[in-house]
Amino acid sequence: MNRKNYFFIILILGSLATVSPFSIDMYLPGFPRIASDLRTSIDKVQLSLTSYLIGICLGQLLYGPLLDRFGRKKPLYAGLSLYVLASFGCAMTSSVEALILMRFFQAMGGCVGLVASQALVSDLFDKDKRAEVFSLITLVIAVSPMIAPTIGGYVTASIAWEWVFIILAGIVSLIIGAIYFFLPVGRGADSSVSLRPAAVLNGYLTVSRQPQFMIYTLAGGLATAAPFAYIAGSSDVFMNIYHVTEQQYGWIFAFLAFAMIGSTQLNHVLLKKFTSEQIIRFTLCYQTIVGLVLVTGVYNQWFGLYSLIGMMFVFLSGQGLTGPNASALSLAPFRKHTGSASALMGSWRMGAGAAISAIVSFLHNNTALPMVAMMAFCSVGGLIILHAGNVIVRHQASRRQVEDEVSVLL
Asked: Name one Pfam family in it (predicted).
């Protein structure tokens, strides 16, 4: 693969993976305007974020088998077309309930990009290059929080929040064109993959029996749900508690995105000296400490606007290290069930994100405590799962070795 093709493939895969993050980030500055126009409260508007995450969670489970059965491109065209239609539905909504429903369908369509991009990495790149490619894709994803809220803030302030969804529909239409003309086919259709419910369930059970997959999917998925707590609570914290404007909120969001961009670039360097397992273990310990400091500081009212932003930056810098390495380690054991493995991994991540964002909304108390508490919970929980999972695997391996030695002696 020459350098030019490599660049275009990474850009397209990154764009596919960015559809959902962009859809989440771009409308956040419009929450107060949406609440006002639809005559509802911000916590009700936050439920449109939760419904989007639920749609991603369910949709990925649907697309996994479809990508294995029909190849990569046909499900991509179908899902992204649904996204475009649902985006126009969001723009034309007249109630918060309708917005919540349209966001669900928008997610059901757009999430195909998350599953397909990860499956295509396994299709197109050697195993020893995948963590590096995931880092580059994460870099593209990390740029979206810099651009999306800033654009969304200016569009909401100068035109109307409905135009955010119209712009999203236009962006995805361009991505569909890029897929058609420039993206390699990847793994082709496999008629041996059955779409019967029992067969699909059996495929997911086969994937879930792989210990390495389960450890890094569960631990990495919970850890990477931390930004969803930040996303769900940040507009209320910064705009209603600290009284920043829509445009200022967009710039704060963009600044914090540098944390993920920097750590993604750092991951590219660290992989030359350390394994993905070592990087994840260190990062979760680091984020656990910072998360607990955040909770203590917010509870005791140590932080003003700038110090809170600074601590958030320190915490979020770990996200660019955890996500790519967890993805590479989760998918490494698979060849045949890559689509299903990608779907199950992505579904758990977004399911965890949906639950975390809903809890932040439920615990809303006009302080930053629900947001930072759930961020810390994700890191602590991820670290516990990683440690416990590895202990169990080592114990099982040791027990099997003893049993084999006994059987030889007998």
From this structure: MFS_1
Domain assignment present for 190: no
Percent above pLDDT 90 for the chain: 22
Give a yes or no: residue 63 inside a domain. Answer: yes
Secondary-structure breakdown of the chain: helix, strand, coil percentages, each rounded to the nearest 5: 85, 0, 15
Q: Distance (Å, rounded) from C-alpha 220 to C-alpha 223?
A: 5
Could you give the dihedral angle defined by the CA atoms of residues 302, 257, 219 and 271, in that order, rounded to the nearest 10 degrees?
Answer: -120
Question: Is the predicted pLDDT of residue 22 greater than 70, yes or no?
Answer: yes
Instruction: Give the pLDDT confidence score for residue 98 in this predicted structure.
Output: 94
Provide the token pair at 108: 């059901």
C-alpha 80/C-alpha 109 separation (Å) is: 5
Q: Which domain holds residue 271?
A: 3-183+195-409
CATH code of 236's domain:
1.20.1250.20
Of all helices (H) and strands (E), which one includes residue 289?
helix 276-299
**pLDDT (tens digit per residue) in 209-254:** 888 888 888 888 888 888 888 877 887 888 888 888 877 887 887 7
DSSP 103-150: HHHHHHHHTHHHHHHHHHHHHHS-GGGHHHHHHHHHHHHHHHHHHHHH
Contact partners, residue 360, CB within 8 Å, separation at least 6: 46, 229, 232, 233, 370, 371, 374
Amino acid found at 174: L
